[in-house]
């Protein structure tokens, strides 16, 4: 109760502070998501070039070894790299 009251007080005292939203984004914790990211990466023209290729390989290896969060992070980075971002 006290933390909620403190948060409410802070929001009133500092109106420019962004308010927390009810939506919470989470990373799916399964190898299926790794496969989905890999499938999204495959058709991209930059997927076969470095560093996207090695990032994707590392990501899939980590997913297979049970390190899904780290693997997903590498696969997402590979996607961004392959897209030229």
Q: Describe the biggest sheet? A: none
**Number of H- or I-type helical stretches:** 4
Rounded to the nearest angstrom, the radius of gyration is 19 Å
The helical percent reads: 55-70%
Could you describe the 3D structure shown?
The chain is mainly alpha-helical and about 80 residues long. It has four helices and no strands. Helix 2 runs antiparallel to helix 3 and helix 2 (about 30-40) runs parallel beside helix 4 (about 70-80). The longest helix has 15 residues, at about 70-80. The chain is elongated. It starts with a helix and ends with a helix.
Secondary structure topology:
Blueprint: H1 2-13, H2 31-41, H3 52-64, H4 68-82
Helix pairs in contact: 2-3, 2-4, 3-4
List keywords for this structure.
single chain; 85 residues; mainly alpha; 4 helices; 0% strand
Condensed summary:
This protein is mainly alpha-helical and 85 residues long.
């Amino acid at each position: 109760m006290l933390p909620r009251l403190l948060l409410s007080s802070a929001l009133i005292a500092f109106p420019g502070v962004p308010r927390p939203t009810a939506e919470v984004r989470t990373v799916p914790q399964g190898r299926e998501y790794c496969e989905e990211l890999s499938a999204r990466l495959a058709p991209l023209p930059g997927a076969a070039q470095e560093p996207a290729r090695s990032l994707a390989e590392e990501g899939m290896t980590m997913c297979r070894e049970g390190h899904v969060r780290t693997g997903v992070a590498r696969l997402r980075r590979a996607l961004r790299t392959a897209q030229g971002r």
